[in-house]
Design brief:
BTB/POZ_dom; mainly alpha; 6% strand; single chain; 217 residues; SKP1/BTB/POZ_sf
């Protein structure tokens, strides 16, 4: 057994070492080596989200991920997606992505500014959760004709950085697409559609997993 301490006010998880190492290259590197973590049988993850890690532990021990019913659960699943990427668990990453997409299909709304900031702070360029979230924000803004963004989004844009650049870029591309659909070929039109209307696999990672058949649920 090993102990994993998660969060700034650490919560201790007492877990089976072999199970962790069998499922994840990340944990194999930590506990199956000569690193301090392996000797001490402890791993500290102060930067990670406790609720997301709790979902990971449930999945690790055989539970099926449940549908997202509210905003708190959404935040936990976003954190789970971030952890799945960190732990090199592509299948889990895609499962979490499916549930996040389904939530936004059933509950049409803007992605909260703070959620978008968290996603960008904890993912890298090209991450599919980034792509989905920033596209959804841009699409909703353009589709609803919002001219005055909320103070939180104005503050976000004022901070600059990758998030502001990506959001501005998507606003421009989607606005142009809606004004001149005939100016794009079929692939580009799909690329600039409402991200909730395209196949889930558009936002999946398939380096080590088999690409899924087209689906929208």
């Amino acid at each position: 057994m090993v102990d994993v301490f998660v969060g700034t006010e650490p919560k201790k998880f007492h877990l089976h070492r072999d199970l962790l190492c069998d499922r994840s290259e990340y944990f194999e590197a930590c506990f199956g080596s000569e690193f301090e973590e392996a000797r001490e049988k402890e791993l500290h993850l102060p930067e990670d989200n406790v609720a997301g890690f709790e979902l990971f532990v449930e999945w690790l021990y055989g539970s099926t991920l449940r549908s997202i019913e509210n905003e708190d659960a959404l935040i936990s699943h976003i954190a789970l997606h971030v952890l799945a990427s960190k732990f090199c668990l592509e299948h889990l990453q895609n499962e979490a992505m499916d549930l996040i997409i389904r939530f936004y299909r059933v509950n049409p709304r803007l992605v909260e500014a703070q959620s978008l900031i968290y996603i960008y702070e904890n993912t890298s360029e090209g991450d599919f959760l980034r792509r989905f979230s920033v596209r959804l924000v841009a699409w909703n803004i353009v589709e609803t004709g919002v001219t005055d963004l909320s103070p939180s989004y104005n503050t976000l844009l004022g901070l600059g950085g990758e998030l502001a650049v990506d959001l501005t870029s998507w606003l421009i591309k989607i606005s142009a697409n809606l004004r001149a659909m005939h100016g794009f070929d079929d692939d580009e039109r799909d690329y600039l559609k409402d991200p909730r209307s395209v196949s889930n696999c558009t936002f999946h990672k398939h380096n080590s997993t088999i690409a899924c058949r087209s689906m929208t649920e």
